[in-house]
Recover the amino acids of this structure.
């Protein structure tokens, strides 16, 4: 058998081969540092298969998978809270207005609805109002003005102030199926990730920054909730997409 320099082999094959050679018995080496036994290619293949590839390592450190053009979340609802600045008689409002429901025995707030823009408001006796269902911040502001006008028409001197966007909900579809069980083991995306297929068919995760809750299903569709700006919504989708791509079926 021809003798091959250990240094040359390690130089050509990298640190991994060094670790393989280091597992051989000391008697396999001559005093001159030359290899008397070279492991077979099958041994090298079986050993290297247990190590992640360089490509895989880069993906684990943070994939740069590009979003397809036009692939973005679809906004379902923009929710906001606002203070009307006055105590209200909800029954009087319910008797005077239309497109609302009021059943204090089962649900205390007064529920008001708009068709243009589509929005729903929950009005509390103390003057706090929550608006949801609008498709944009501008539609949400318009809905607040219209709901306020309805309350004012009954005779209450209300002036809305302190409007805050509380939640933006959006759906998405990435266009490919996802291996959910493998995804649920990825703690680099977030440590708060759960997958319990017996009770819920999707993966749920909580992102710390931007703060958001994400649900995703095997089909590649899902929902993002908890963000308060469209910038954060876009940022969350760009964060989660590469991780979904890693586990595409």
């Amino acid at each position: 058998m021809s003798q091959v320099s250990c240094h040359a082999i390690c130089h050509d094959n990298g640190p991994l081969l060094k670790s393989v050679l280091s597992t051989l018995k000391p008697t396999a080496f001559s005093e001159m540092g030359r290899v008397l036994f070279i492991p077979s290619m099958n041994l090298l293949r079986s050993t290297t298969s247990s190590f992640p590839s360089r490509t895989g390592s880069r993906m684990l450190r943070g994939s740069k998978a590009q979003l397809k053009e036009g692939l973005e979340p679809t906004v379902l609802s923009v929710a906001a809270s606002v203070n009307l600045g006055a105590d209200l008689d909800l029954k009087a409002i319910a008797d005077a207005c239309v497109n609302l429901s009021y059943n204090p025995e089962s649900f205390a707030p007064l529920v008001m609805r708009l068709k243009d823009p589509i929005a729903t408001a929950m009005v509390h006796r103390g003057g706090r109002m929550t608006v949801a269902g609008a498709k944009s911040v501008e539609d949400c502001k318009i809905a607040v003005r219209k709901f306020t006008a309805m309350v004012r028409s009954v005779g209450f001197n209300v002036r809305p102030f302190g409007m805050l966007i509380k939640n933006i909900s959006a759906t998405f579809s990435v266009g490919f199926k996802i291996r959910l069980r493998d995804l649920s083991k990825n703690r680099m995306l977030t440590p708060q990730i759960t997958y319990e297929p017996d009770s819920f068919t999707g993966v749920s995760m909580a992102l710390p920054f931007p703060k958001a809750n994400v649900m995703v299903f095997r089909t590649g569709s899902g929902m993002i909730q908890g963000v308060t700006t469209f910038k954060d919504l876009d940022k969350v989708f760009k964060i989660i997409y590469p991780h979904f791509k890693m586990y595409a079926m």
